[in-house]
Amino acid sequence: MKRQMFYSLALILAAHIIACAQESAPAPLAQCPALSVDCPTDISDGKSAPSTFSARLTGANPEAKLIFNWTVSSGVIETGQGTQTIKVIGAGDSLTATLEVQGLPQGCPNMFSCSMFSCPAPLARRFDSYGNLDFRDEKARLSNFALELSNSHSVQGYLIAYGIKADRQGKTQARLE
């Protein structure tokens, strides 16, 4: 009799463990669509054409009622609020456009952003200029130029030589090389 009771308890306990395991297993997530935000190449200064941001959405349910809500860190949304594409004017030196999409399946990411920064044109400055010098003086000036380049990792140097075509003996080209 004791054996029969043990088996009965074991079966009840095993059935209870299986039922709990089935209840706690997470439900599979719905297939999430792929969404990204494309940044423009230039920030609008308010005088030229506006900056255009676009959302690319693939794999979404065509019957889903999606709502597109854009916010920008600077500037003004000129057109497109509520759509997949906006145009922003007067953004300044940096701009982040954030898109929140409502209506995607539960558990899917719904916020996306794109940031851009304007980089001012580099300033060019003349480091040195000289005419026909003896070799030691020219070497000293070129060494100073090389030292300036090595101290500033964000600069680029150019050597410009005039008179190469007028020099029939090739001395200017040889000195430049």
Task: Write up what this structure looks like.
- The chain is of the alpha+beta class.
- 26% of the residues lie in helices and 25% in strands.
- It is built from 3 helices and 7 strands, in the order H-E-E-E-E-E-E-E-H-H.
- It has a 4-stranded antiparallel sheet with strand order 1-2-5-4, with no helix packed on it. Strands 3-6-7 form a 3-stranded antiparallel sheet, with no helix packed on it.
- A hairpin with an 8-residue loop joins strand 6 and strand 7.
- The protein starts with a helix and ends with a helix.
Gist of the model:
This protein is of the alpha+beta class and 177 residues long.
Which secondary structure elements does this structure contain, and how are they paired or packed?
Blueprint: H1 2-24, E1 34-38, E2 51-58, E3 67-72, E4 76-79, E5 85-89, E6 94-102, E7 111-117, H2 135-151, H3 171-176
Antiparallel strand pairs: 1-2, 2-5, 3-6, 4-5, 6-7
